[in-house]
Amino acid sequence: MSVLPDNPHDQLLDQNVNPRHWPKLPYRESYDFIAIGGGTAGLVSTGGAAMLGASVALIERERLGGDCLVTGCVPSKALIHAVNSVHQARHLNELGIKTGSIEVDFPAVMENLRQQRAKISYDDSALSVTDRGIELLHGTAQFTSPNTIELNGETIRFKRAMICTGSRPRIPEVPGLKEIQPLTSDTVFNLTELPPRLAVIGTGPIGCELGQSFARLGSKVTLIGTRDRVLPHDDLAAGKILAEEFTKDGIELRLNAKTERVSKSESGYKIEGNSDGTPWEIEVDKILVATGRLPNIESLNLEAAGVAYTEHGVTVDDYQRTSNKRVYAAGDISGQEKFTHAAYAYAEYATLNALAPLRMFKSSKRHIPYSTYTSPEVAHIGPTWEELQSRIESLDCYSEKFTSVDRSKIEGAALGFAKIYTERGKDKIVAATIVGQQAGELIGHISLGLTANAGLEKLGLTVFPYPTRSEVVRKAADQYMFRKVTPLAKRMAKAWFRLMK
Ligand SMILES: Cc1cc2nc3c(=O)[nH]c(=O)nc-3n(C[C@H](O)[C@H](O)[C@H](O)COP(=O)(O)OP(=O)(O)OC[C@H]3O[C@@H](n4cnc5c(N)ncnc54)[C@H](O)[C@@H]3O)c2cc1C
Ligand SMILES: NC(=O)c1ccc[n+]([C@@H]2O[C@H](COP(=O)([O-])OP(=O)(O)OC[C@H]3O[C@@H](n4cnc5c(N)ncnc54)[C@H](O)[C@@H]3O)[C@@H](O)[C@H]2O)c1
After folding, report:
1. Three-state SS at 67
2. What is the CATH number of the domain that holds 432?
3. Is 241 helix (H, G, I), strand (E, B) or coil?
4. Exposed end of the chain (fewer CB within 10 Å): N or C?
5. Do 213 and 281 sit in the same domain of this protein?
6. Is position 489 within any domain?
7. Would the pTM count as exceeding 0.80?
8. What pLDDT is attached to residue 26?
């Protein structure tokens, strides 16, 4: 995780969240609750534990706020906001609004990103954390026994501990790649010059969000993925729509591709690879690697604590408890969904389970949506597209396109669809995918429906303001009513019409 130290915004960020600025406290011998890692999961769990009145310590080795604040959601969405704005500006002529030529001042875009990130850092700052009664300890923690941690040479006992150490970018074993130190999500937000030619390896959420962003800011982007489509874990149709948009953005797609070798060239870097066996070679100025994440388990000495783990992270049960009954885990480290809101939701339950006399809060009861903030956005909740396909016989699917939504048509943003899957013949929602503008906002309706146990009947009866994009959800739900209720209603109405005088 790195930030530039030589600008006022990053200095402010650093001041707020870097532990080296905190006063060094004498450690207590023992705490009721210790969290290792001060990202979303660590902040949420220690905040909750302190609120319950426990003696609480939060150990962080680098910066509070973790990935989300420093190198993840916050900087990427600040960048995407600029990207969406420039894209809209380029299309204002279509609305009869005359603009001069639109120019991107990349250093200024990145400066704004750093400024927004610094502003948000107050929420995760040392001041805000200590105000909640949490003791902040600086350093790399490691377990020394099932109920002790060593920090900076001192031993601290705990009654309950929470592992929240997150994840880091995975660099694939491609000859020459590690040696050239490619950009990753840890370093890409430090750029101050737009790379004229950028290769992005990986077509998951990071590759797609950042690949499209750099293309719309003016880089010549080549997006390289091993799979046959972009966002391969999502709905097939979503990947197709997105690939078409990427092509319009000038992105060159190299799918079904194997990156074989990377080397320095005269003007930058050479990448050699093949797609479906056909060899290719490209020259670029920068390479961004976005090929998944590795859990930060190495420094923890989990064996000493009897905490089981795999290559995906620390193993937890439905209560977020590890194989050590005093130790819980949440966030990217626990091998579950890698999203900030998932870290938040699971850390909340983990803390309650860790500190209450009985474990009562099951993570499987929570519904975790997600959205990839490309243009159009791709949002989903429930089992993956592949899982849904494997049990499609037992499901019904109701879908609606944004072309039937007036607000989307008016604004010329009618690309995409909503699909809601239910149990066959019933209105119980199983999953949903929304592709389109603000899909990330719209999937919240389905998330609420799932949490409140409200099926398509209730969604269809819900009145949404006209004209809003939310109508896509209501219209998809209406189809259930039409299919299920209308034939019976028609028969009853016909009987009544015969009797009606
Ligand atoms: C580019 C990018 C964009 C993203 N966009 C989104 C998005 O739009 N929406 C979304 O929901 N999610 C997004 N994510 C994912 C999200 O950032 C993560 O899921 C989330 O930050 C995980 O939180 P965490 O608390 O588990 O871990 P982290 O935030 O990684 O925090 C872990 C902390 O633990 C510390 N640590 C590690 N080991 C030790 C140790 N031994 N001792 C002490 N401290 C230690 C680290 O320094 C770090 O501060 C994005 C991620 C990336 C990379
Ligand atoms: N909007 C969001 O919520 C958001 C945004 C960004 C990241 N994230 C989180 O961060 C996580 C990590 O994102 P990510 O995109 O790095 O990982 P990912 O695992 O989701 O996607 C990585 C992609 O890279 C491909 N790949 C792997 N090795 C490759 C290689 N050698 N060459 C080419 N392609 C290769 C994989 O097939 C996969 O499709 C995500 O799973 C997500 O949970 C969330």
Report:
1. helix
2. 3.30.390.30
3. helix
4. C
5. yes
6. no
7. yes
8. 85
Q: Which among 291, 310, 335 is the end of a domain?
A: 291
**Structure confidence at residue 354 (pLDDT):** 98
Three-class DSSP category at 328: strand
**Alpha carbon of 292 to ligand 2 centroid (Å):** 4
Q: pLDDT exceeding 70 applies to what percent of the chain?
A: 99
Closest C-alpha to ligand 1, atom 15? 339
Task: Tell me whether residue 497 is in a domain.
Answer: no
Instruction: Report the CATH number that the domain containing residue 312 is assigned in CATH.
Output: 3.50.50.60
Handedness of CA 228, 232, 235, 241 (dihedral sign): negative
As a whole number of angstroms, the distance between CA 46 and CA 66 comes to 14
Q: Which amino acid is at 322?
A: T
Q: 34 C-alpha to center of ligand 2: Å?
A: 31
Mutate to test the pocket of ligand 1, among 27, 73, 137, 298 (most ligand atoms within 8 A of CB): 73
pLDDT confidence of residue 482: 86
Closest C-alpha residue for ligand 2 atom 6: 206
Q: Are residues 317 and 415 in the same domain?
A: no
Give yes or no: residues 145 and 68 share one domain.
Answer: yes
Please tell me the predicted confidence (pLDDT) of residue 490: 86
- Same domain for 14 and 154? yes
Whether 393 and 333 share a structural domain: no
Two structure tokens written together for 181: 């130190």
Pair type for strands 252-254 and 220-224: parallel
- Domain tally for the chain? 3
Enumerate residue ranges in the chain where pLDDT < 50. Answer: none
> Is 206 annotated as contributing to ligand binding?
yes
Q: Tell which of 365, 386, 403 closes a domain.
A: 365
pLDDT digit string, tens, across residues 429-450: 999 999 999 999 999 999 999 9
Best of 339, 340, 381, 386 for a ligand 2 pocket test (most atoms within 8 Å of beta carbon): 339
202 is in an annotated binding site: yes
- Segment 220-258, tens digit of pLDDT: 999 999 999 999 999 999 999 999 999 999 999 999 999
Q: Which domain holds residue 320?
A: 8-169+294-365
Q: For 425, left (φ over 0), alpha (ψ -120 to 50), or beta?
A: left
Complex ipTM tops 0.90: yes
> Which protein residue has the closest C-alpha to ligand 1 atom 6?
73
The tokens describing 360, both together, are 């009562």
- C-alpha distances in angstroms, 126 versus 17, 19, 21, 133, 135? 6, 8, 9, 11, 9
Token pair belonging to 164: 């929240």
